[in-house]
Amino acid sequence: MKKAKTSRPVSGGRKPGKASRGARAITPLGPPLVGPLLIAAVRDHPLAGALRLAEALARRGRVDAHVLAVVPPLSGSLSALASIDADLEPRELDECLRDKARVRTQRQVHQAVGLSSFFSTSAETGPVGATLAAHARARSAAYLLVGLAPAETAARKTTAAAASQLAMEAAVPVLACTPDVEQLPDSALVVTDFGEASIRAARAALPLLADGGSLTLAHVVPALHPPSSEAPGVTAAKPAANVLRWLADDLGEVGNVAVQIATLEGAPLSVLAEWVPQFDLVALGTTSRAASEAEGQVATAVFQHARGSVLIAPPASGWSSAHHDSR
Fold first, then answer.
1. Nearest alpha carbon to residue 127 among 71, 79, 172
2. Residue 128 φ then ψ, to 5°
């Protein structure tokens, strides 16, 4: 995707609110991937974008990328069973469905990335979430990549919900990719409430960015109209910018990636609607299985408006120390 410009919105012609921003210096070496990649092949979920992004990451980081096709249990696969005209035992039926899924997945890999030496494939029968979570833990996966249906399609909400649930179950960052993703993202947005979850999201996003890319830490503050009588002309944007600078410094060395800050004034959901589509990647942090109402609203808005990939960092309680310590 083309790198988004963050000085103004690229759609609608209407400014989302006042923005103040800064940037920090570029430093030498970037954070490497801390493990292999796992790509989820779930039937009816688009896979091509996730495969292309995984190939780019695997090639740059010299890590393995494994594509796992998950076949739901037979009780949930009646349509698949109906297509098999044979008198088979349950064990044989399971094996037949896995073979079909494995062949289908291999074909998708070849169509998306050709004969890549970084990829391997397999198929398993079982509940989708639990099976992927078990493989992510067993392989010490750095990221779990999944398909995300295009915006404004009926399947967007379903695939977005699946990605969010997997981040909770797998305890690794989940990267949801639309079918048209072709390359590493040039620009990333992290909308922060100044909590640790936002920092986890930023740290997970940094190794995904292309060389020379940018990551924007943004905070939305309500616009004051008129300014406060106690402090004329002063809004919450100024102290917010100070905290954002501190958070940018806390990220440590981030390689050949510029970390920017942006304080945005306006109604949060309206601001997100304007800013989210500008970026190749939007990263979210999660705090717990019982997410707050505000956190849920932000996630819904991001998935609704994102035109590129969405990264979901899992809660700290389930995230491995390797991800916490990578800088």
1. 71
2. -60, -55
Chain center to CA of 50: 10
* Cβ atoms 166, 297 nearer than 8 A: no
Helix (H, G, I), strand (E, B) or coil at 125: strand
Q: In this structure, which long-range contacts are made by residues 92-97, counting pairs with CB atoms below 8 Å and at least 24 apart in sequence? A: 94/125, 97/71, 97/125
Q: Which of 25-29, 81-85, 179-183 has the lowest mean pLDDT?
A: 25-29
Q: How confident is the model at residue 232 (pLDDT cuts 50, 70, 90)?
A: very low
Measured distance CA(34)–CA(324) in Å, rounded = 11
| Residue 233 burial (C-beta neighbours within 10 Å; 0-12, 13-18, 19+) | exposed
Identify residue 76 by its one-letter amino acid code.
G
56 torsion bin: left (phi>0), alpha (psi -120 to 50), beta (else):
alpha
CA distance 246 to 306: 27
Contact between 173 and 143 under an 8 Å Cβ cutoff? The reply is yes
Distance in angstroms (rounded) separating the CA atoms of residues 3 and 37: 24
**Which range has the worst mean pLDDT, 13-27, 46-60, 227-241?**
13-27
- Burial grade of 155 (CB within 10 A; 0-12, 13-18, 19 or more): middle
What order do you get walking across the sheet with 65-71 strand by strand? 19-23, 258-265, 214-221, 187-191, 281-285, 309-313, 174-177, 143-147, 37-41, 65-71, 119-125
Tell me the C-alpha to C-alpha distance, in Å, between residue 123 and each of 84, 149, 286: 18, 22, 29
Over residues 48-67, mean pLDDT: 95
- Rounded to whole angstroms, the Cα distance separating 25 from 93 reads 58
Give the list of residues 6+ apart from residue 279 with CB closer than 8 angstroms, or none: 4, 6, 185, 187, 188, 189, 216, 308
Handedness of CA 75, 77, 82, 84 (dihedral sign): negative
In the predicted model, is pLDDT for residue 149 greater than 60?
Answer: yes
Position 5 scores a pLDDT of 35
